[in-house]
Amino acid sequence: MEDKILEIKDLVVKFSLRGKVLTAIRNVELDIYRGETLAIVGESGSGKSVLTKTFNGLLENNGFIPEGSIMYEGKDLAKFKTEKEWLPIRGHEIAMIMQEPMTSLNPLKTIGEQIQESIIIREYGKISKEDAKKEALTYLSDVGISNPEKRYGQYPHEFSGGMRQRVVIAIAIACRPKILICDEPTTALDVTIQAQILRVLKDMKKKYNLTIVFITHDLGVVASVADRVAIMYGGDIIEVGTANEIFFEPKHPYTWALLSSMPQLGTKGEKLYSIQGTPPNLYQEIKGDAFAPRNPHALKIDFEIRPPYFKVSETHKAKTWLLDERAPKVEMPEEIKKLKELKHL
């Protein structure tokens, strides 16, 4: 994979909160390739949303980037400071779908007006309202909303949760972005509707040549949408690989723990696996591997020196000292072996 659309190097994001400085993103390195669906996975607070907000300038006012770069189309987005700089990027090039559609939709405007507004802004006003309406109706149809002519004039409260999420997708697509960030867009939906929304996203990716970055903590969603997976912990990406590599050949103990926690791998009558301990305090400097205090396989060096990336394959790398040639050999958990067995069923 050579065609990088976004290249992140040594990215650091900090927040000034209550007189203290919190380091939310710690020297993250990540490449995103044109046309792929990349899933970023991790526990709440691991930095998934903060990382992707740096792609379109949506960090809160007290957030800042002291180090690193985010290269997109020859521009370093980490250096952008003003709304004027972000205007051609946000929405136009990189769009975002949030978790709760009602916070994204204006309850006082019709659905049609809100999609049409995106189209007019995209064209910098150089399109008639009639043409913008025709295009908006196409997007409504694309995302699976039946009778778009009628729905065009309705308000958000007249739509179900799943239909509102379809509308939010339509608004994002109307901007004709190259990258679409989906921040847990199916979390609030039931399983049936969730599957429908994932199908819509797959269809939109194909029709509009999108690159999708999918933020989630749901590994079931990852399995159904992702080409590649990045695992985040403590503000860092600790393992990256293809979906098959992460699910069936994971290397980092945190990835083992995440996969072992999947309810599908539980045994009837036995307690489900859970990760013991708590995530690191990001107000404090983290020494060594951030996961070391919760890692039953931690080595002495894990508490002292932060591991570099160890290359597993051309598409797979992980930050764990267990991959060092001098490390003792540790077997992956039985739960992961079950996953490998399920693969062959």
Describe the structure.
It is a single chain. The chain is α/β, with parallel strands linked by helices and 345 residues long. 31% of the residues lie in helices and 23% in strands. It is built from 12 helices and 12 strands. It has helices at 48-53, 83-86, 101-104, 111-122, 129-142, 148-152, 161-174, 191-208, 219-225, 243-248, 253-260, 334-343, and strands spanning 4-17, 20-33, 37-41, 63-72, 75-76, 94-97, 179-183, 211-216, 228-233, 236-242, 310-313, 316-318. The strands form 2 sheets. An 8-stranded mixed β-sheet has the order 6-7-8-3-9-10-12-11. Strands 2-1-4-5 form a 4-stranded antiparallel β-sheet, with no helix packed on it. A hairpin with a 2-residue loop joins strand 11 (310-313) and strand 12 (316-318). Helix 4 (111-122) crosses helix 5, helix 4 packs parallel to helix 7 (161-174) and helix 5 (129-142) packs across helix 7 (161-174). The mean pLDDT is 91.
Secondary structure elements and their pairing?
Layout (H helix, E strand, L loop, with lengths): L3 E14 L2 E14 L3 E5 L6 H6 L9 E10 L2 E2 L6 H4 L7 E4 L3 H4 L6 H12 L6 H14 L5 H5 L8 H14 L4 E5 L7 H18 L2 E6 L2 H7 L2 E6 L2 E7 H6 L4 H8 L49 E4 L2 E3 L15 H10 L2
Parallel strand pairs: 3-8, 3-9, 6-7, 7-8
Antiparallel strand pairs: 1-2, 1-4, 4-5, 9-10, 10-12, 11-12
Helix pairs in contact: 4-5, 4-7, 5-7, 7-8
